[in-house]
Design brief:
- By secondary structure, the protein is an alpha/beta fold.
- Helix content is 44%, strand content 12%.
């Protein structure tokens, strides 16, 4: 029986490094943002590599859901990397009742600053923190229990401790020799958007040490920070570690 783990994250949040950690296990396959093409098709947003993304994945949500819940993976463990903003409000989440869930969060100030280094603008929808909190409630209602939550800063401070706690919460054996380091480079499992977004991770061989930063956001983004911080702090109250 395959254990399917769904990791729900916002952008610029060590989510690809976390995917590397799980993919380096000998018993795990990973799926990189399977709803990205659906999201681009529905929103019409001009993201980098838009046409390549649309050509690389199904744009039909029902088809993607069947692949995520009914396929027969070659490995006993499947790790699904999801972006919370790819799930529109009002979507019935009953499809993921049989999955094990975790939410990866990060301080919105750091997310906003990092996003602005990659894109010309940012809004609440882009970083998806409020949607992340709403999705947490929806999945908790479907599964009958609150999902596990990990904070990116906690992972970087002590990846061994947090990943061990996460594996325990998910009912999966923690494999430190596999999950705390990996070979550099891109992967066949990476989405076609990897050249734009995954440059730093492609050079990495493990989780990089946490470095406290003083981030100064432009004035137009202070309100975005304030609104997102409320959702972040609420989710942080559920975190492991």
């Amino acid at each position: 029986m395959t254990i399917r783990v769904a990791m729900w994250s916002g952008p610029r949040n060590i989510s690809t490094a976390m995917m590397r950690s799980w993919e380096n296990r000998p018993d795990c396959e990973v799926i990189d943002e399977p709803f990205y093409a659906c999201y681009l098709k529905e929103t019409g947003l001009p993201h980098p590599a838009r046409e390549a993304v649309l050509a690389s994945q199904s744009v039909d949500r029902a088809t993607v859901i069947r692949e995520l819940t009914e396929s027969s993976p070659a490995s006993p463990l499947q790790y699904q990397k999801h972006m919370t903003k790819h799930m529109p409000q009002g979507m019935d989440m009953i499809w993921c009742a049989g999955l094990k869930h975790c939410f990866l969060i990060r301080d919105p100030v750091e997310v906003i600053a990092s996003y602005l280094r990659m894109m010309p603008s940012v809004d609440e929808h882009d970083i998806g923190m409020t949607r992340q909190a709403g999705l947490f409630r929806e999945i908790a209602a479907v599964t009958g229990e609150p999902p596990a939550v990990i904070d990116a800063a906690d992972v970087l401070r002590d990846p061994g401790q947090i990943l061990a706690a996460l594996c325990e919460a998910l009912g999966v054996e923690f494999l430190p020799d596999s999950m705390l380091s990996w070979p550099p480079g891109y992967r066949e499992s990476d989405g076609v958007w990897a050249p734009h977004w995954y440059g730093d991770v492609a050079q990495s061989t493990g989780f990089r040490p946490y470095r406290p930063r003083t981030v100064e956001l432009p004035d137009p983004h202070c309100r975005l920070r304030e609104g997102s911080t409320e959702a972040y702090r609420w989710l942080r109250g559920f975190r492991l570690g």
